[in-house]
Q: What sequence folds into this?
């Protein structure tokens, strides 16, 4: 990976490698103050070997920020910022640090800022559902000056560079977009007028900083908004930003409001590199490619092929701070890849919670939780090879204990293979791969696959502690317990391909498992992307026909949900993409319906205050959730005087995020 780990210079600032951690809201800075939590988080990423860490967003004023953003708008924040630069900088031998100058415009929430948001025009935001106030001509220079003041403060406290955010639908992007900017003065109308606000910000910041301080601008490669800014305009405005004084252009994807997925695991790796490539071909300054590039081999290839000069890795470095060091040492197999689940990061941000990570239990806790080397090495038995059990085995081994992991199946993963089965969810396999590779590399873990752990076997091992992570089992409703197994199937068996679903299907339960089962079945009735590309390349079918074949599901699939919402247990930043795919495939949904029984031709549905109705169903799939698998082993251990710990779904059926965290904490606390 010689390209990824070659140095590069941006206006006098030499980076040791091409890996950039873009700014990402973390919600670690209450009241704008730098915290121990923030410093510890970034110090670990600095030590992990990244070339440049861009911190942010850093609020340039109250109207465009919020209480959980890093404050860069007042002198009182300077001591904390200086401490941040000093301590994070010393954690990484060659790391460089940048501050992102942030103003959300109409994306600001009045309940957080205490004031009405501002924008180019007074048009309501679909993101906040609030009405902003249009900036007057007299106010525009005041806001631009705040960018300048924040840039000077960033430089003076010791940051190596700063970045102006002109992407994602934030203030500068709002002036540029014809969708939002409906002004009739010199800041609206033509492209030149709409670009004026952002260009002036770059010019003024450059003039204040002088010619020798590195300045980056982050742009939206394409708004992906109907009537908004496309990729051709991005190239034009990027050229103007460079003429105005930008030393590097950081290219990301679309707005928060877009209905085109940007960051979920359904987005193919490197899908938006073409946006950076188009900008790079038009510029003579370094260009950063971002979004869904978790693999250093892919990153190296992007640079080698000339599509970009640097690679943005935000969530990949959240998932594994050591990614750069591991890749440089040739240990890519041991990288704990981000799987783009959004559970711990974006779902947390949009809920106003501190960022965590599904695959890395220490994220946000770096200042509190460290691996505790064992003072006395113990024999630890782990029962169950799902996420909780695998993490417990890994951490116990790293702490120095001798570990034996029992798994009744002949492979590791637990429910992860089922989670990876639906279309666009294959990244879940990465977590299983990581654990498999890591456990194999550790010399003090013995795997006993295809082996049921009995009390006699465990006692024979003379363990000091037993961690029970036997997972969950599907819930079987009473009406389905004596049903014909050829006609009534469990979603668990469908997703694991143990059972084939013939013909039309009705899925009972429209939570995450039910929705994913519907997508799993629908996808098998359509052509795959490779076939679609072949048909388009050969002009064998029209683009319209290929689109139809990609989306057309020949069987009828329906989802039945007793609650009022489909996918209620799916995270906010992913749920909308699942609903979009269900609509695309033509999956029918029925909410507020309870299944009260089966008939010869289908099932009976009941609603409050309504007579039961019959629904025809050729095949019925049960997806009403999971419950903890009863463990007689736990009580048997107690009777033998052996310490037993219940973790993960064996304790209570929840998400992988909780399972991994409990596995870490249980093993680290031995």
A:
């Amino acid at each position: 990976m010689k390209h990824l780990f070659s140095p590069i210079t941006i206006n006098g600032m030499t980076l040791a490698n091409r890996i950039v951690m873009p700014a990402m809201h973390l919600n670690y800075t209450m009241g704008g103050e730098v915290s121990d939590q923030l410093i510890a988080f970034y110090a670990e990423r600095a030590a992990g070997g990244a070339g440049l860490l861009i911190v942010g967003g850093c609020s340039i004023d109250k109207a465009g920020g919020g209480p959980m953003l890093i404050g860069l708008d007042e002198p009182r924040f300077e001591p904390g910022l200086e401490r941040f630069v000093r301590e994070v900088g010393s954690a990484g031998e060659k790391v460089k640090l940048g501050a992102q100058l942030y103003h959300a415009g109409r994306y600001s929430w009045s309940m957080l800022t205490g004031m009405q948001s501002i924008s180019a025009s007074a048009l309501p935001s679909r993101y906040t559902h609030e009405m902003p106030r249009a900036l007057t001509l007299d106010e525009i220079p005041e806001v631009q000056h705040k960018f300048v003041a924040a840039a000077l403060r960033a430089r003076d406290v010791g940051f190596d560079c700063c970045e102006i955010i002109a992407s994602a639908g934030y203030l500068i992007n709002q002036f540029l977009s014809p969708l939002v900017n409906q002004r009739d003065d010199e800041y609206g109308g033509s492209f030149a007028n709409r670009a004026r606000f952002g260009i002036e910000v770059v010019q003024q910041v450059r003039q204040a900083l002088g010619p020798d301080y590195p300045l980056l601008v982050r742009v939206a490669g394409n708004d992906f908004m109907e009537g908004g800014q496309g990729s051709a305009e991005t190239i034009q405005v990027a050229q103007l930003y460079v003429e105005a004084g930008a030393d590097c252009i950081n290219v990301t994807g679309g707005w928060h409001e877009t209905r085109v997925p940007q960051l979920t695991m359904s987005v193919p790796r490197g899908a938006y590199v073409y946006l950076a490539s188009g900008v790079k071909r038009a510029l003579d300054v370094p260009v950063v490619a971002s979004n869904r590039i978790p693999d250093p081999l892919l990153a190296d290839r992007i640079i080698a092929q000339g599509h970009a000069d640097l690679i943005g890795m935000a969530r990949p470095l959240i998932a594994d701070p050591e990614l750069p060091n591991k890749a440089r040492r040739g240990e890519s197999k041991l990288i704990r890849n981000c799987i783009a689940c959004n559970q711990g990061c974006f779902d947390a941000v949009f809920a106003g919670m501190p960022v965590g990570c599904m695959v890395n239990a220490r994220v946000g806790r770096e200042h509190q939780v460290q691996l505790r080397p064992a003072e006395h090495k113990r024999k630890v038995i782990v029962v169950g090879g799902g996420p909780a059990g695998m993490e417990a085995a890994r951490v116990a081994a790293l702490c120095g204990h001798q570990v034996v992991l029992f798994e009744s199946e002949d492979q590791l993963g637990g429910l992860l293979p089922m989670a990876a089965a639906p279309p666009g969810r294959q990244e879940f396999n990465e977590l299983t791969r990581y654990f498999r590779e890591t456990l194999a590399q550790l010399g003090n873990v013995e795997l006993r696959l295809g082996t049921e752990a009995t009390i006699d076997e465990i006692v024979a091992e003379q363990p000091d502690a037993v961690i029970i992570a036997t997972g969950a089992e599907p819930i079987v409703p009473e009406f389905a317990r004596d049903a014909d197994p050829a006609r009534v199937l469990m979603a668990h068996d469908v997703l694991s391909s143990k059972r084939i679903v013939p013909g039309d299907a009705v899925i009972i339960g429209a939570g995450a498992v039910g929705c994913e089962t519907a997508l799993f079945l629908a996808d098998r009735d359509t052509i795959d992307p490779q076939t679609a590309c072949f048909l388009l390349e050969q002009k064998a079918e029209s683009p319209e026909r290929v689109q139809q074949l990609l989306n057309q599901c020949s069987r009828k699939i329906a989802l039945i949900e007793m609650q009022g919402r489909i996918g209620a247990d799916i995270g906010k930043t992913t749920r909308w993409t699942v609903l979009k795919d269900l609509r695309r495939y033509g999956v029918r949904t029925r909410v507020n319906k309870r299944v009260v029984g089966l008939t010869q031709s289908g099932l009976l549905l009941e609603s409050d205050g309504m007579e039961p109705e019959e629904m025809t169903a050729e095949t019925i799939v049960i997806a009403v959730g999971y419950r903890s698998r009863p463990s007689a082993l736990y009580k048997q251990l107690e009777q033998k005087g052996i310490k037993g710990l219940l973790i993960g779904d064996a304790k209570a059926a929840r998400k992988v995020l909780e399972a991994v965290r409990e596995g870490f904490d249980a093993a680290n606390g031995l």
In short: Residues 287 and 521 are 41 Å apart (CA to CA). The mean pLDDT is 95. The longest helix spans residues 139-157. The first strand starts at residue 8 and ends at 10.
